[in-house]
Amino acid sequence: MSRQDDRKNIVNYFKKNLKKGYTLDALRIALLNQGYLKVLIERAVEQATSELSKAAPVLKEKPVIKYEIIDEYDNPVTIKKSWWKRVFG
Fold it and tell me: Is the pTM for the entire model greater than 0.90?
């Protein structure tokens, strides 16, 4: 196998296992323990992260998070400030 084939296999390994939820550090250590060169691993990490970032969707607007307290009958609950908080802030 050539270095290009090795790097392509490692890139695919990173992409597949990152999608499964493994961390980059855990994957790096596993490959180092298998005897791969650190330089080859780091280049594969760069390539895999760039490919994954290109495939990620781009958010055009920030989501708006709204909080609402609901009682057991699915009615919204309004919380009134206590007298002390209204007076003294």
Answer: no
